[in-house]
Amino acid sequence: MDRHILYIINPISGTRTKKDLRELIEKKTREQNISFQVFPSVASGDYTFLESYIEQNHVTDIVIAGGDGTVSQVVGSLMRFKVNFGIIPCGSGNGLAYAAGIPKEPQKALDIIFHGKPVSTDGFYINRQFACMLCGLGFDAKVAHDFAQQPKRGLPTYIKEVVKNFFSAATYKFELTIRNRKFQTDAFFISVANSNQFGNNFTIAPKASLSDGLLD
User: Is residue 193 part of a domain?
Assistant: First the structure.
């Protein structure tokens, strides 16, 4: 079966220049004699507008060049299609890509896309929102929210938001119901993890697996 790759590039994720990345993607994909198309990411996070393109062009692979947020949005919008999803890590954290063993270098990530074998990965829903990696409540969610508002991306900006929020952090009151058992607790944050890390190889759930059918 001939492959047709749909690339989705987030132009503002991370700090890497996307013009050079697009040129690399186009050059290397042509060298493999694989048909492809490139689309930019959209601010709304809704990619259902691509459904007709996927069907009409018999897309076999959707590759996201972006961070964890873009990956979750694209997969959540288009997972009903029987396609393979791939990642070229371009975000500030790239937690899902690193947990899956995808290298940071675009050329090496492309080598996996061209020559690797697809594997199944779990996903989950929180309040009808799809997630591939993890869902946080409390301190980490506040940091992620504040980071998303910043004009500059990258690890230094993320660390700045962590430090800023750390000195004003207070515990939250949580009520959890698990298997019909209810309990309350005070905590700075709670994370529901499919992946073992927040990003940048910062581990939060060391025993979490992307494909064991369980959340940690």
Answer: yes
Q: Are residues 100 and 153 in the same domain?
A: no
Dihedral angle of Cα 153, 159, 162, 166, to the nearest 10 degrees: -150
DSSP 156-179: HHHHHHHHHHHTT---EEEEEEET
With CA atoms as reference, report the closest residue to 198 among 135, 147, 152.
Answer: 135
CB atoms within 10 A of CB 73: 23
d(CA 171, CA 107): 43
What number is the average pLDDT over the span 154-164?
Answer: 83
- Domain end (from 121, 149, 177): 121
Instruction: Give the pTM.
Output: 0.85
Token pair, residue 26, equals 């186009």
- Chain mean pLDDT for the chain: 90
pLDDT above 70: residue 15: no
